[in-house]
Design goal:
7-stranded mixed β-sheet, alpha/beta, about 375 residues, about 40% helix
Length: about 375
């Protein structure tokens, strides 16, 4: 099998899997228990917290372990909104469904949300952010990397502007974490989300970073786990595996970035004018490549590739209903029919040049065969 859907999920690394197994076998206590076994679990949990805080230049007290990216996004937004008065929220038209859907829910409870447009490359402009700020703007939530075309937003510049205006700022860093350097201080963000299974850790765990200087109102009074932010016993084996996978990725990040960039460029060379890149490589994460296939529906191409043992996607794994075209593709100026020709190829640490060549040739055959029968 050629697996090119790493933006949806990644396989657990052997090191992370071993860390999970060892922790499950040998660290039995509940981190809230006061006996020695509980103290051992609590000590390991805090070590993990410090490790992840260090990886993003944050404070350990800001790291809250969650069930994954979606919960982290919701927890961050709720916490920031509860800390300050205001009814206006800024976001973009290309956010992940976990953000977009939650913002629509907040609209129903009285918040006003401005979904900012992006250019043809999927990038929001600083000027658009500035022009949309209001006296009652309380929060902005803008992704660091888009999950469908890999566009990287100018988060640091936007964050500096928002800090000047006293607007709280959350970034969904789920696709970026472990692939590019992340520094919460340099990015000027108040909160950040990440997910373990996007970087070779287990599913079902993630982190929400919350600026410790922000006034915090606990969602459920009396909760003891995770500094009162998340009730329920923590999944310590998964957290240890998450941290292990993170350390692995950070150690290989720079070399892997260059290797993946070469794979991306090679696939584009093979395809030539058989497919069009959605977005741009100028300000994009190389691990995610969005393509439109002239005259061929993305779902058709995906299914034919799958029959050949090649796994790609037709968009975000959280937006698989392609009856409606991708929000991202529409936002960057594609028509609805064009958007339905979209596929996403996402590279991982196991992806080889041979697999890229095979995929490119298979795509050309699918497109060519479709054209012959038009």
């Amino acid at each position: 099998m050629i697996y090119l859907d790493h933006a949806a999920t990644t396989p657990m690394s052997e090191t992370a899997l071993q860390a999970y197994t060892d922790t499950a076998r040998h660290v039995l206590g509940n981190s809230q228990s006061v006996h020695d076994s509980g103290a051992m679990a609590a000590g390991l949990l805090e070590h993990c917290r410090r490790q992840l805080a260090q990886s993003i230049n944050g404070h350990p007290h800001g790291v809250v372990f969650t069930s994954g990216g979606t919960e982290s996004n919701m927890l961050a937004i709720d916490t920031l909104l509860a800390s300050k008065k205001g009814r206006h929220i800024l976001s973009t038209q290309v956010e992940h469904a976990s953000i977009r859907n939650y913002l629509h829910k907040l609209e129903q409870s009285g918040y006003e949300v401005t979904f900012l447009p992006v250019d043809g490359n999927g990038i929001v402009s600083l000027e658009a952010v500035k022009a949309s700020l209001r006296d009652d703007t309380v929060l902005a939530t803008i992704q660091l990397v888009n999950s469908e075309i890999g566009a990287i937003q100018p988060i640091a510049e936007i964050g500096a502007l928002l800090k000047e205006r006293g607007v709280l700022f959350h970034t969904d860093a789920i696709q970026a974490f472990g692939k590019i350097p992340i520094d919460v201080q340099a990015l000027n963000v108040d909160s950040l989300s990440a997910s373990s299974h996007k970087l070779y850790g287990p599913k079902g765990t993630g982190l929400c970073y919350l600026n410790p200087d922000i006034k915090r109102i606990l969602p459920i009074p009396g909760t003891t786990h995770e500094m009162g932010f998340r009730p329920g016993t923590v999944n310590l084996p998964a957290i240890v595996a998450f941290v292990t996978a993170t350390q692995e990725r950070l150690g290989e990040m720079n070399a892997e970035y260059g290797r993946v960039l070469n794979l991306r460029q090679r696939l584009l060379e093979i395809l030539g004018d058989w497919a069009m890149e959605a977005g741009t490589t100028v300000q994009a994460l190389p691990h995610i490549l969005g393509l439109t296939l002239p005259g061929v529906e993305g779902q058709y191409a995906m299914l034919h590739l799958s029959r050949q043992g090649i796994m790609v996607a037709t968009g975000s794994a959280c937006h698989v209903d392609m009856e409606a075209p991708s929000h991202t593709l529409i936002a960057i100026g594609k028509t609805a029919p064009e958007a339905k020709t979209f596929i996403r190829v996402s590279f991982g640490k196991s992806t080889t040049l041979e697999e890229v060549q095979q995929t490119g040739n298979a795509l050309k055959q699918i497109i060519g065969g479709h054209r012959r029968y038009e």
